[in-house]
UniProtKB/TrEMBL annotation:
Keywords: DNA-binding, Transcription, Transcription regulation. GO terms for biological process: DNA-templated transcription. InterPro entries: LysR-type_TF_proteobact-type (IPR058163), LysR_HTH_N (IPR000847), LysR_subst-bd (IPR005119), WH-like_DNA-bd_sf (IPR036388), WH_DNA-bd_sf (IPR036390). Residues 1-53 form the HTH lysR-type domain. GO terms for molecular function: DNA-binding transcription factor activity; sequence-specific DNA binding. The keyword Transcription regulation applies. Belongs to the LysR transcriptional regulatory family. It holds the Pfam family LysR_substrate. Gene3D superfamilies: Periplasmic binding protein-like II, Winged helix-like DNA-binding domain superfamily/Winged helix DNA-binding domain. It comes from the Bacteria. The keyword DNA-binding applies. This is LysR family transcriptional regulator.
Length: 291
């Protein structure tokens, strides 16, 4: 098939032969065999060169995308094999800073032959990764059918505020939150709505409050006394142990959302991905240490 594609690209058997490191007669025989198989001529042989027939042009349009797809798949497989000891990872920023980085040295100690490259974080509903990274740690429902998605941690959530905010806004019952400023995650606009529906009954003001696009900013806003935050508990260990934040209701809540390690199915058998996933699962099962 490469003989046909290159001959069509250059409109020359000799140039196609040169690129494929074969003789011109070999290319001619290959094209003649293909034309015989298809039952139609693909090229018009002219004194000044080649030209595609109408059937040849149509055939080129049909086979070129398939060949490009095959080339991409081949390149991806080769890249995966060559980078067995490298994992390019896109991670939700707050999870990276508050949970992953403080633990990462233990992975490096037990897997010194695997290097992790952290790249810019990008969210995606399908958990598909681009050419720039192999896998990601995403916050969501884990319902990505084209990807291997391993639940890690994060379904347990906390309602938190600063001690000074609590002093000014006593919170003893779920209904007391209706009198508070609710810090909103703009990429998770139904978070508070879902919480009220599950635990305290519908509340029209559940989506009203200052908005932020990262849990890092929401946590810092809560520490600054700007309101009450609803945050995965795994992100709050340092803030709670230092008493920068408190949990006024004294309990935690279950969320359908969590952090998942995700990779497209065709990359999920990479050694680096599997080793990293095994280590993450062990760390997520480990009880938090006291600070």
């Amino acid at each position: 098939m490469n003989a046909f594609l290159l001959s069509a690209q250059h409109l020359s058997f000799s140039k196609a032969a040169k690129e494929l490191f074969v003789t011109q007669s070999a290319i001619s025989r290959h094209i003649a065999g293909l034309e015989a198989y298809l039952g139609h001529p693909l090229f018009m042989r002219r004194s000044h060169g080649l030209a595609l027939t109408q059937i040849g042009e149509n055939y080129l349009k049909l086979v070129r995308p398939a060949m490009e797809s095959l080339e991409r798949a081949t390149t991806q497989v080769i890249s995966t094999a060559q980078n067995a000891h490298l994992l390019s990872l896109s991670v939700a920023p707050t999870f990276a800073a508050n949970w992953l980085f403080p633990r990462l040295e233990s992975f490096r100690a037990s897997n010194p032959h695997i290097a992790i490259h952290f790249v810019r974080y990008s969210t995606t509903d399908s958990a598909e990764t681009g050419d720039g990274f192999d896998a990601s740690i995403q916050y969501g429902y884990g319902d990505w059918p084209i990807a291997d998605a391993q639940y890690l941690i994060g379904r347990e959530t906390s309602i938190v505020c600063s001690p000074s905010y609590l002093a000014q806004h006593p919170i003893q019952h779920f209904s007391d939150l209706k009198q508070c400023s609710l810090l909103q995650h703009i990429e998770l606009p139904t978070s508070w709505d879902d919480w009220f529906n599950a635990y305290a009954g519908p509340y029209e003001g559940a989506r009203i409050g200052p908005g932020f696009n990262l849990f890092t900013l929401i946590i810092q806003a809560a520490i600054a006394g700007l309101g009450v935050a609803l945050v995965p508990s795994c992100l709050l260990q340092e803030s709670l142990s230092s008493r920068k934040l408190v949990e006024p209701l004294g309990q935690r809540f279950e969320s359908p959302l969590g952090y998942y390690l995700c990779a497209p199915n065709w990359r999920s058998d990479m050694e680096s991905y599997q080793r990293f996933g095994e280590w993450l699962q062990q760390e997520c099962r480990r009880p938090p240490t006291a600070s």
